[in-house]
Amino acid sequence: MSTEDTVGTGGPARPDHRPDRRPGERAAPVRTGSPVPGGAVAAVAGALVLTVCNVLSGLYPQSGSTRDAIAWFAGNAGLVEAVAATGLLAVFLLVPGVWAVVHRLRAPVLAAAGGWLMGTGYLASVVLSVETLTVLSLLAADADPGLLATASDEHAPATAVALYVVFGLGALVGTLLLGVAVLRSGGPVWAGWALVASPVVRMAGLFLGVPLVGPPLASLLIAAAFAGVLYGPTAAHRG
């Protein structure tokens, strides 16, 4: 035990000990655990569910027009619905889980900015799942795939387009900032770099035409990083 762990000769110091505290002054609460019930589990589980979603969506055709994609949806409705369902479940777990991670970091402004962007980005992705489910219901009612494609390509509301942008930028930039916050907080270095690398790996996989590799691997990096921050050997000692 080092001298920093003791107060005079009185034995181990309490975690909230401050020699300069005035008599009667209450100690500031020590942040241990998660402010969100089940948040730590939700964070890791959400990233793993997102991995499954990425694997399933990686089976989508990577070429062709919007009309071709919608026609493909009609013949693969079960898979498409599974992608939408896992995407929604991932969001429901990740959004509260992100704040459990933010709570553990000692770079409050940077961590909050990253958590806010990441959480908002994935929340905006709900529109993609709902849009997909709506297309499936219209196809089941024998809607014309060509008409649906025209509506998607030429008549998408500005709000919907804005949500797509928020999803993309929020999820990518937010994850990057959260990784930097982990590094600045003295958290596991490998976890911080895993979060920083995640958006790079995701975009590289999409641009290089390997959607079954890039996005799933990026989500696994998030899951591993969250586990390292929340369950690592020093997790209980970080503020």
Automatic annotation (TrEMBL):
Superkingdom to which the source organism belongs: Bacteria
Region described as Disordered:
1-34
Q: Where is the composition biased (Basic and acidic residues)?
A: 14-25
What are the transmembrane regions?
Answer: 40-60, 80-102, 114-141, 161-183, 216-236
Q: Which UniProt keywords apply?
A: Membrane, Transmembrane, Transmembrane helix
Q: What is this protein called?
A: DUF4386 family protein
Task: Give the originating organism.
Answer: Pseudonocardia tropica
